[in-house]
Specification:
alpha/beta; six-stranded mixed beta sheet; 11 helices; 39% helix; 17% strand
């Protein structure tokens, strides 16, 4: 870790110490990393500064509602006046799941996405971390903060999900050291994995049906397109179909790029882009999105634009893969 970031940790801690009311935000439609970093940081602060009021805000935890303390607080607007708001795991203002952070006296951001825009008064953005949970874990370690069991379990959950169970190449020796530190705080790793990866029969059938929907471009980019009519017939939430089904195409031999298109209201299309060895982030950014080098997303206006994106991905697949 660079000395600059170490000094920024000290600044972040000073701001936390200076405010009695702290409200923690993350991106909407949360994944395990967003929920884990939010819950984890909340309980780290509460453990070390017991007199502080600490709240978490945002939309529902959705499929991560099994996580302890995942129910969001309902706050009135005036609660944000004079508060410190901390934004986690979020690279764009448009994705923050409660815009009232703008009323706060001071704002902080911890993030591991590729930088897109300044959001908070003070920010630590480090793309070398596999997860925001990993960054929060490092913050706690560097600052000598106690990490209670519930916080450790939450942070470990987010670390697992964003590293693909420690398979993605963002996983480093540091990742595993941080995971070991969290496990030392005494929680059941088996309980985490059982909740994360157990599926009912209907869910498994849904995943199988999506794999059968996969198509392939000339240069072997795998893609699935779900129309709005199909989405309504499925009777499940958009997140489950969009982000939840993209990796049904992962690990297909010979496929290095895959994308899941999900049509929603007003003909807009959610695009989830993934790759095993290409930097697909510039294409996501070209279409108004962002994220990571090998996992990004965007929302485009219509199917025609989605197919233009697919064409760009197909052209990318003709190039030499990026260095891992």
């Amino acid at each position: 870790m660079s000395e600059d970031i170490h000094e920024n940790f000290k600044i972040m801690l000073q701001k936390i110490k200076a405010h009695d009311k702290i409200i923690i935000h993350r991106h909407n439609k949360p994944d395990g990393d967003a929920m884990g970093s939010q819950i984890g940081l909340k309980h780290i602060i509460k453990e070390n500064y017991k007199d502080k009021q600490v709240y978490v805000v945002g939309d529902s935890a959705g499929q991560y509602s099994f996580m302890d303390d995942s129910v969001m607080d309902e706050l009135t607007d005036d609660c944000f006046d004079g508060a410190l708001c901390i934004i986690l795991d979020c690279g764009s203002k448009t994705l923050i799941s409660d815009t009232r952070y703008e009323r706060a006296a001071c704002t902080l951001r911890f993030d591991h996405h590729i930088f897109d825009q300044k959001i908070a008064d003070y920010e630590i953005i480090d793309t070398s971390y596999e997860s925001c949970c990993g960054l929060i874990t490092r913050f706690a370690i560097e600052c000598g903060l106690r990490v209670p069991s519930l916080a450790a379990k939450s942070l470990f959950t987010g670390m697992v999900t964003d590293s693909g169970r420690f398979r993605y190449d963002a996983t480093t020796a540091r990742t595993l050291r941080h995971a070991a530190f969290l496990l030392e705080q005494q929680f059941s790793m088996d309980n985490v994995y059982r909740n994360l990866y157990s599926e009912d029969y209907e869910s498994k059938k849904l995943r199988a049906s999506f794999l059968l929907k996969a198509n392939f471009t000339e240069h072997n980019v795998a893609y699935i397109y779900t129309s709005y009519e199909e989405l309504k017939k499925l009777g499940t939430d958009t997140f489950t179909i969009s982000r939840g089904m993209v990796n049904t195409m992962a690990d297909i031999k010979g496929v290095d790029i895959w994308v899941n298109f999900t049509e929603i209201e007003n003909n807009s299309v959610l695009c989830e882009l993934r790759s095993s060895c290409y930097n697909i982030n510039p294409i996501a950014k070209k279409y108004g999105g962002g994220g990571h080098k090998k996992a990004s997303g965007a929302t485009v206006a219509n199917k025609e634009t989605a197919m233009q994106m697919l064409h760009d991905l197909d052209l990318l697949a003709t190039e030499a893969p990026a260095e891992n």
